[in-house]
Amino acid sequence: MNETKKRGNANLPALILLAVLLMFWQAAAMGIDAAYILPSPTQILVRLWELRGPLFTAHLPATMSVVAIGLSISIVLGLGLAVLMDISEIAEKALYPLIIASQTIPTTALAPLFVLWFGYGIWSKVLVTVLITFFPITITVFDGFKSVKTEMAELLFTFGASKRQIFFKLKIPAVLPCFFSAIKMAVPMSIIGAAIGEWLGAQSGLGYFSRRMMTQLDGAGVFAPILLLSVVAMFFTELVAILEKRLIHWRND
């Protein structure tokens, strides 16, 4: 009960700021009085309710499928690259520049190529999601490995611990906070990646639906799936934060 109350008090400033911004948005939209340019928050909520059928039964599941597959691949790929660069200096020197370079290419330039190569199916969107999300996981976890104090590793080594034991008993627990920080970044980025892929080429999904509403000059219809994406991203990020607190209990002591 006290924990819930504490979290509520911590979120109070953010809720107040959000309410103020929404009031300004509502006032600005009423002043412009052109819903196709700037719909008000109330108009977006009404439109979201009107479109709840196709959004929740068809397009949201399509987007979540892309997010689930893309994020899963990114976690495996990111962790694999981070571990490989940690155990091999040659791999670090070879892979690190390429990983950085992969983020210098605009995603909007690659997404149409993915559609050209893989068509309008799910895999073109999954590749966009992986391209965006594997980077923070790889770099954050790798930096976590590097932050482990060498003195502690040397101490365990003098006590007879093997490299395998040092890795699992010292490095893995030490890097867990970095891993969860990376996941909390990757979750909203995976949703953004899926939406970008759907916006540029898809037959279903919230990004596709938003683009379709734009062609109809339906401003509130454009914002409705975006609002839904934001709520979903916040929900899953909060789930990751709760899981982090349960698994890394020593961090909260």
From TrEMBL:
Entry GO CC: plasma membrane
Entry superkingdom: Bacteria
ABC transmembrane type-1 domain: residues covered: 60-244
GO biological process: transmembrane transport
Membrane topology value: Multi-pass membrane protein
Pfam families: BPD_transp_1
CDD domains: TM_PBP2 (cd06261)
Subcellular location: Cell membrane
The family this protein is said to belong to: Belongs to the binding-protein-dependent transport system permease family.
Protein's UniProt keywords contain Magnesium: no
Main location, first listed in the record: membrane
Key words of the record: Cell membrane, Membrane, Transmembrane, Transmembrane helix, Transport
Alphabetized InterPro entries for the sequence: MetI-like, MetI-like_sf
Annotated transmembrane regions: 12-38, 58-83, 95-120, 126-145, 174-200, 220-243
Record-given protein name: ABC transporter permease
Organism: Hominiventricola filiformis
